[in-house]
Design brief:
By secondary structure, this protein is mostly beta strands. The protein has one domain (3-17, 24-170): Porin (Beta Barrel), CATH 2.40.160.20. The chain has one helix and eight strands.
Length: 171
């Protein structure tokens, strides 16, 4: 996946942010642990997510995110595979207050690509797979300051799922 492709949506949102009201635009960042599937195998790695969000009102947010889900290795007998997974998403997030916490429910459209190689019976092959699907997430957030919020979330898509801990910083 080319870097220009993954930056188009966040840059478009930045252009819209120029005329936005104060504290409606925020940046988001997370450390994540992802489970990536390749056939019948699933492996985990640590990655990150960065993005830009727009707070429509106290209950609804919209985000554009770029992900690096990390690199994974599979090995079984003489068969081996190594690949990395990157992606981006557009998400709608609903926030429901529970005391000082907010319950998060997210629906996102996720594009991701697996690139790498695999070996079967000493023959080498390149692997490149483009995927897109709907992902669903749930989590909690806590507003520490008016402009700073921490969050924890778990998200499930058809070929990938991840847990993340991160922040939102409004400006």
């Amino acid at each position: 996946m080319r870097i220009t492709k993954t930056l188009i949506l966040p840059l478009a949102l930045v252009c819209l942010a120029i005329n936005a009201n104060e504290n409606n635009i925020y940046i988001t960042g997370s450390i994540l642990n992802s489970d990536v599937e390749l056939g019948k195998h699933t492996e985990s790695d640590t990655g990150y997510a960065v993005g830009l969000g727009y707070r429509y009102n106290t209950s609804f947010d919209f985000e554009v995110n770029v992900y690096d889900f990390g690199e994974v290795d599979f090995s079984q007998d003489v068969d081996k595979a190594h690949f990395e997974t990157k992606g981006y998403s557009i998400a709608g997030i609903y926030k429901y207050p529970i005391g000082d916490l907010k319950l998060l429910a997210e629906v996102s459209y996720l594009w991701f690509e697996k690139d790498g190689s695999y070996t079967i019976s000493n023959a080498n092959y390149d692997l490149s797979s483009d995927n897109n699907n709907i992902a669903f997430g749930a989590g909690l957030s806590y507003q520490i300051l008016n402009s700073f919020e921490i969050k924890a979330q778990y998200t499930i898509g058809s070929d990938i799922e991840w847990a993340e801990i991160g922040f939102n910083f409004s400006f």
